[in-house]
Amino acid sequence: MESRFEKRTLYIQDNAGHYLNKFGIMESTGNKISWNWCAFFFTSTWMIYRKMYKPAIFVMIIEYLAIPFLAALFSGSFILGTLTTSIGSSLSLAVSILLGLFGNYIYMKHIDELMDKEPFDDQFGYQQKYGGISWKLVVIFIIIGNILSLAVEKVLF
Questions:
Q1: Can you list the positions of beta strands (E) in the chain?
Q2: Which residues of 124-141 are buried (b: 16+ CB within 10 A; e: fewer)?
Q3: Rg (CA), the chain
């Protein structure tokens, strides 16, 4: 029977050593904070790359809908529009910082949930389908995100 460490390796696949080290430190200290530069810079794109679709959609709603909506709400006034742009930038930065701080923890919990749901009859297929990375979906979500962003801009402005 595989250890939890070995199972996590099968789900993480690319760059497993890095993530296993981060997970080990978080578990031994009980601290949920562990800096992740990729999560900070690429937010929802990093989540899609790591196949964390549900949290990625939540972050994308904030990035592509909530922040532009806020900007459009006050865009008629120069002062409020400028303030809203600052607020929108601040919210984007806050999302990046939060994901930078908690991205590894979110990823660890995601991997652990996958391991708990793993079927006994097709472990390898399940690990390949739900674990690892996906460049193809990153490209698709970047395209969808840009289309969504343009659509929101057209509607709101």
A1: none
A2: eebbeebbbeeeebbeeb
A3: 18
**Tokens coding 46:** 């990093």
Cα distances (Å, whole numbers) of residue 71 to 22, 60, 66, 144, 156? 37, 16, 9, 21, 9
19-76 pLDDT per residue, tens: 999 999 999 999 999 999 999 999 999 999 999 999 999 998 888 777 777 766 666 5
Task: Indicate the angle between helix axes 4-12 and 78-117, nearest 10 degrees.
Answer: 130
CA dihedral 77, 80, 86, 91 (to 10 degrees): -110
Q: Which residue ranges make up each domain of the chain?
A: 4-156
pLDDT tens digits along 92-133? 899 999 999 999 999 999 999 999 998 888 888 888 899 999
Q: What is the reported pTM? A: 0.86
d(CA 115, CA 110) in angstroms, rounded, equals 9
> In the 3-class helix/strand/coil scheme, how is 13-48 assigned residue by residue?
CCCHHHHHHHHHHHHHHCCCCCCCHHHHHHHHHHHH
Handedness of CA 84, 86, 89, 94 (dihedral sign): negative
